Amino acid sequence: MNDHAGSALRDWRQRRNLSQLDLAVRADVSTRHLSYVETGRARPSPEMILRLCEELAVPLRDQNQILLAGGYAPAHPEHSLTDPPMADINAAIEAILQAHQPYPALVIDSRWELVTANEAAFLMLDGIPEDLLEPPVNVLRLSLDPRGLAPRIANLAEWRDHLVVRLRRQYDASGDPVIGAMLEEMADGDAVPHPSVVSSALVVPLDLRVAGDTVLSFVSTTTVFGTPREVTLSELAIEAFYPADEATRKYLNGA
């Protein structure tokens, strides 16, 4: 089994564009030993695997898989948000979502599936066909679906290009084949996004049509938990939307 662990570590090293010497220096191991590990000639300890994974910024889920391939038990626990050990984390997430009212905020996992959201976010989905909202809901696909949010997004081409860039960066970092498939699906074979309009805006807004001709403009932030040691927690992100102009702020505050 160790050759599989070694080849996985080699794949991650190459994904990070590091030479064996670069990684050996960072992890304080000899280049020869690292070479033996990658070819399966030496069996790394679980501590060595985790040290190399740390230097390579390997996601916790993948670290567990590499440990299993090396014949060891996973090092990082995984729970559902509803499990007792996650009660405090779940409470923190709910507090963040509720405190963000009346502005939309939602929680997604590493594959863009909706975990939970506040009331303002669900209001943005009002009128979407029910079959598109059957769990699991992929937020990225929903936003670009012709039956989903796409017709409501006033700057759809710009927003789509923003999502493609973000997805490409995520794939480069994670190597997740599901993300790779989503990227191929969204990019339509284009090598790079090509925004049709060059904007002077500081960030790419989400311009969303609501009642009548009203367009709400949002900027978004992404929040992740610092130094997570649990798989589910490491894969969660809170997407919070803020008014990008005074008209949107007044509309959402009922002014």
UniProtKB/TrEMBL annotation:
The lineage of its organism: Bacteria, Bacillati, Actinomycetota, Actinomycetes, Propionibacteriales. SUPFAM superfamilies: lambda repressor-like DNA-binding domains (SSF47413). Gene3D superfamilies: 3.30.450.180, lambda repressor-like DNA-binding domains (1.10.260.40). GO terms for molecular function: DNA binding. It comes from Nocardioides thalensis. PANTHER family: BLL4672 PROTEIN-RELATED, BLL5781 PROTEIN. Residues 9-63 form the HTH cro/C1-type domain. It comes from the Bacteria. This is Transcriptional regulator with XRE-family HTH domain.
